[in-house]
Amino acid sequence: MPDATTDLARASDSASHRYDAIIIGAGIAGMYQLYRLRQLGLSICVFETGSGVGGTWYWNRYPGARFDSESYTYGFSFSDELLQEWNWSEHFAAHPETLQYLNYVANKFDLRRDIQFNSRVDTATFDDTDMHWDVKLDTGERFAARFLITAIGPLSADTLPRLPGVESFRGQSFHTYRWPHEPVDFAGKRVAVIGTGATGVQVIQTIAHQVSQLTVFQRTPNWCTPLNNRPITDDEQRKIKSSYPELFERLRQTPGCYIHDADPRGTFEVTQEEREAFWEQRYGEPGFGIWQANFRDMLTDPKANALFSDFIARKIRQRVQDSVVAEMLIPKCHGFGTRRVPQETGYYEAFNLPHVKLVDLKATPIERITETGIRTSDAEYDFDMIIYATGFDAITGAFDRIDFRGTGGQRLKDKWADGPKTYLGLQSAGFPNMLTIVGPHNASTRCNIPRCIEQNVDWVTGLIRHASDRGYTRFEPTPSAEADWTRHIDELADGLLYAKIDSWATGINTNVEGKTVRRILQYQGGAPAYRARCDAVASEGYAGMDLR
Ligand code: NA7
Fold first, then answer.
1. What's the 197 CA to ligand 1 centre distance in angstroms?
2. Which residue's CA lies nearest to atom 23 of ligand 1?
């Protein structure tokens, strides 16, 4: 392996430390990338804004946070020893257990010694003369590295509502992503929750029984389905541990790397009785089967989708006692599964509690946050606490918050202003030696994410090994390969119902300037096809890339 560190010592006198690779982020992706690059013998530094590992699971400490993928399908797959050592306690583990798991992994593989915590990267600039990245933290400290790998997460740029008065509220207020590390006491409190996405649903169903009053401010209802969680029995634990190879092989075959795969039948190929029985069965099963293992045309045929949406609407009407509230909770502007499906446990029943109120913001929008609460177009509400479950500037937002500069000083944010342009969702032309794990246009944000993270990281590691073995110090995609990939991303989304709906997955966030136009940000061809394409590129000597 060429001595990249020595080259860089000459190249970047102004940086205080020099590494072969810098990774931004110590979540699941950053942790695994560190582990893999160490095996190549590289010097590595990971910069992490938080004070601990875990990324999403470090930050999202809000009440009720838990998996919506089966626990044993979510953990790292790279170490048999780890798989055998770790016991998940529930089919869908709660936040504390997941954070404990990630800390266990960090300890087991001694990851922390290469992670610099409490370190926010402000800028990263490519120096074309010496072919390295110059990385600056918000403290002003500078570091240099040949390779820059972003592991900054698709849902890490949290956003508050753009409403007047947000700063003026005198009670407690939290964005769910920035939840405090200390326990929050809800007893006797009048609490507002703004937002009814997957996060809002988990918060609402959890705190409804602890507060004295709960007011939910809903702009768009979502189609929520039962999580049907339960503890893992000893017998199940033994079976899970003895079948990990088969389990991971199955996960490699399904489009989203979930254990659920679409039913091969079309909605209208069965009788009404068969359809209803099948849907009832799915409704009673755990996890995402109802979304990922429904009839094969459910997410492409509007009639099939409407029929199933009606089925779920009936369930909501059965579970919510007040028919007016039930109607408010039934989505009218999008069909089932065209947005991420919140998995719930008693969410709808929470609205049957006498102290829980639902406010429809489409009918009565919020005008401002006041010192004492929230003012809508028709009422003034006083609260002790406001919880913002208002989501993220998704997928590209975390990239926008770091000033990445490529060749000729080009800003990544400018290059992606009209939508990302990438090759394989892992690189962008003009940003040499930069790799974007879980970046826009790759399969991971449509995926049981650790499975796709492992694929991204293994591919990146292979590329760096390939470059290092052959003495290449610079690589980037060709503009034509990038244009082809970007076109391919758009074509794959053609005909999918989700592409016509506003959501974080289509890049919509009304709280962010310029994020009101729908964009295709995700690879929609399924993880197996994505993996095959990445493997083909590698086996052709990294076709579509310029390596020097
Ligand atoms: P989401 O799914 O983006 O949900 C955010 C929610 O906040 C959603 O209901 C929004 O309504 C609402 N929102 C956002 N801004 C406002 C304002 N200004 N006023 C009122 N309501 C607002 O984020 P989550 O954190 O719930 O989930 C993210 C993902 O994490 C999830 O899909 C899982 O994959 C894990 P809207 O729908 O935009 O009308």
1. 5
2. 391
